[in-house]
Amino acid sequence: MDVNQPKQEHLLALKVMRLTKPTLFTNIPVTCEDKDLPGDLLNHLMKDDPSTVKGAEMLMLGEMLTLPQNFGNIFLGETFSSYISVHNDSPHLVKDILVKADLQTSSQRLNLSASSATVAELKPDSCIDDVIHHEVKEIGTHILVCAVSYTTQTGEKMYFRKFFKFQVLKPLDVKTKFYNAESDLSSVTDEVFLEAQIQNITTSPMFMEKVSLEPSLMYNVSELNTINKYGESFSTFGTRTYLQPLDTRQYLYCLKPKPEFAEKAGVIKGVTVIGKLDIVWKTNLGERGRLQTSQLQRMAPGYGDVRLSLETIPDTVNLEEPFEITCKITNCSSERTMDLILEMCNTNAIHWCGVSGRQLGKLHPSSSLHLTLTLLSSIQGLQSVSGLRLTDTFLKRTYEYDDIAQVCVVSSKVKAES
Amino acid sequence: METTKVITEQNERKTSAEDTGEIMNVTRECAFQDEDKVEKEEFIFHEETIDLDGDALESEENVTISDNSNNFLDKLNEQMMESVLISDSPNNSEDDVGELGCLQDIVEEMDAREDYRCEQVTGEKDSNILNNNKADMENTPEDDLHSPSEKLSLKEEEISEPTIDEQNVENETAINTQAEDVSKSKPEQASVPYVSKPSPKDESIPVCTIFSQVSSQSPLLIHDGFEPQMVKSPSFGSGIETPGKPPPQIVQPSPSLSKFFADNGSTHSPASDFFDSFTTSSNFISVSNPNAGTAGLEKNVTVPNKAVGGSQDCTSPKFFVGNSESCGVRRSAAALEIPQSPKPFSQMQTVFAGNDDPFATALNMSDLDRRHDAWLPSEETQAILISLSTQQYSTIFIDKDKLTMPGLKFDNIQGDAVRDLMLRFLGEQAAQKRQVLTANSVEQSLEGLKQLISSKNWRAAVDLSGRLLTAHGQGCGKSGQPTSHTTDSLQLWFVRLALLVKLGLFQNAEMEFELFRNLDQPDLYYEYYLHVYPGRKGSMVPFSMRVLHAELPQYVGNPQESLDRLHNMKTVCTKILDHLEKGLAEDGSMINITQSNRQASVQLWRSRLGRVMYSMANCLLMMKDFVLAVDAYRTVINYCPDQEPQLLSGIGRIFLQIGDIKTAEKYFQKVEKVTQNLDGHQHKITVLMNRAFLSLGQNNFSEAHKSYTEILTMDPTNAVANNNAAVCLLYLGKLKDSLRQLEGLVQQDPKHYLHESVLFNLTTMYELESSRSMQKKQALLEAVAVKEGDSFNTQCLKLV
Question: Which residue ranges does the record assign to the Trafficking protein particle complex subunit 13 middle domain (chain A) (predicted)?
Fold first, then answer.
């Protein structure tokens, strides 16, 4: 307001107002019945109130739009809109007015003015209006710098600037986690599951319009956030389409390597780029925001050069009776042919049958061999198959394979009875 | 069976940081708690990858530039622009930033997030900037960040507190004079024969009209504040009865009835049992009010300028409300009641006739009363009420804390904010022109109260209600003192509390409402006052007051309590409807009710249930539990089918508010379907209004403006469309047009447009328009001064 007069009197006044979406006026319904003391007075007052919904005065949420009351919060990915008004407060004609609006962030300066043309003249009590929009792409301090230059009637060149500072806050908290799915028969096309937790860290409810995973070149993605029922797909979140402040939601995606990538090396190794999450949300009256995460990276499970996977295993076996499992051993190295030695170490429950420390012969790159092993369990219950060791004779490196699979061990009597 | 697929969860401790979730550099601090180790690793990872990942979380460019090149440019810019930033921001912005109300910094958030952001990849440079900025911001005025309502409430407290103190002092003196008065008046009263008609002296003095009914009570001894309330059986009091005394004007009771009365209390005939069951037993409970009797109101009528406190000195009691609860004087109900209302007798007569002809039931208890007053007390209260109406020989003690003892908590909130502002901005002369009704300038009666309410002088109305309640002995400082209730006293409380809520003085309302607790004490039921309201059953507390009571907590930040109360009300309403369906009376008793009567009752209670559901929906909306709120509003449609279009539109707006435009659209389409076959302006307007809102949701202000304009061609006086069209114009960059529209409206039709929301928009635009907004706002103040009462919320003028 007029409290802080600028040191130098300017003929023009610059006013800026952030244009967030207007809000709906809410009224407080107070009603009474005809038989009550005020009779129909209170109801009448509500009917006369222009902000109530006619015919449904008790409805709190009215239809009257009110302008934003304060600057509010602005979040990354939202659009910053602002009204810039330059008004000629003086009784004189002002010439050659140039209004420039820049946005200074911690990393750059952007020009936001719609036009950079000079306005030839401005009559007293008229104004130059501009509405600027800018999609906010950085967190932290932003400064809107508005510069006005003009020429007075006497030909004096005038210039002033104003700064409006605001903070851009982070709207969402996103956490991800990968789960690897191993498949037995086609171990080359391993699926990856991505769980993304998205938390609303703003102070207002947030409608999640779109949360999708844009996969990198190597993957195909299927979203697991809808349920198909009777030909219609329903969101797994039900009718709750929005996130309250501090609410978190989990999204699940299944990624499959494209065949051409899957075939190539047998397995995808090391750090791979999975893709990025694209999040679009809306708040009050459709105020929109959009963010993308950086590329999500995943470290493929460390199979090393040699990979051992299970091909077959019975789910239930008898106590102290031998059973067979089939393993598949793959040489994952790119060019080296390996000489492998298999050792079988007994654990508390698992006892391997056969010779430990035997040579498996030459295994060429990207090839695999199948191996049938016999073992028995001396303890009932769910037992973990562990204790396989493969030693690469050339590198003298030993690979340990524990907890390869679980097997249910039951007493042979029970088995016989059933 | 072979296991075909095993999903193994990666053990995060074993795998490297890249494997666990991280996306944004900023998410790190909130990582899973059990991953400390990983966090550290991640931290390293981040530091290492600053160059790659510096703008990790970036919003997508509309123009597709490759990410890498973009980042690279950013990095370059950062280097180049840094010096510029530091050189201009601190010194200049300090003056300018605070100057505008429109655009403000956010200091709290900033401070809160500072450490947190220093950790971020943006790096040390950033935190330097931040420190500079922080210093700036501490100097900027932050008032505008507080919502106006907060300001308002603060201010109100300031106003009301001192007055409470004053009042307390006044009250002490008042009590003293009261004691004198009573003792003085006692001999007089004692000499007046026990006629329940008001004594000639009483008649000659203007009486607070609402209490005329109560004032006909015969005088009794002084009350001295007993704790337990003693209610005695008639037999106890029969010794002092004056049964032989012929009442002055009565409908002659039937012989059988007089016989009955003669036997009353001493015999335990089957007839009296029957009689008791109709609640008109001669059981005597006084409704008289020990605290009343001195507050003079006639002074206010005759000398309008005199303040309330000053009127305490009048010597003669205007109307007498005795205090027999604690004293031994008991009078026969018959003697008391006969002159007052002959009705019970004829009613009893018909009851004894044992038929259920419509006339009888009509008299038995006015159907209207029964229907409206019905309520189901809690079991405990019910037990007390039953024992009151059936106990004949033993004495019933009612604990003090089972009684309702309300009293004003503050006395004078009268004040005229508009006038205060005029005094401040326009000078004394202008302020003197402000003419509004005050509590003194109207009749000290319910009529005066209504006059104040309808002229929107709610503050004055609250004040007057306070005076009337003081007259009833429930004034300041009377809380916690035994008192008695009448239909009118409770209605007065309702009006007072309703107005406080309307004024937004929720704390004040809560303070006074608290004394009523859960509105279920036995003395809030008619059965408690057998002789004053013979034959009447049910709740003295108006249903609307219960609704208000239930709604209030949500306005003071306790919506859960509101929901609890509303659910209780819902249960009672449902039970009552259940009773009616089963052919019983509302309260579950076996009274015969005619079909039409029953239907009217069902209708009333359904609408009440609907009202409760409405409140529930509103409360849920306030709690921002939108899913439940939408469900609740949909339920309301069942109770108020005529409001379907409005309610569906409302639900649509809720979805718009959340940001769920698609669902909003679905509801708006439903509205179109529902109103398709309905004629009428109003429905077309509703549909257009919804279209406009949808356009707003799609960020299409010009389309929205078009829809509003279309409404205006149909209904040029539509306030909402006018206001909303103006708002759209502003967003389209047409400030002057927008202003012109709103200003025109306010000038042409001040009755409709001097509304908070419109004025708020208008003043906001004035502020945006020029540095001379002050004059324009003051002009608005003058307009308001002419048209609006003291309840006007001056906050929207943004003068202070």
Answer: 172-301
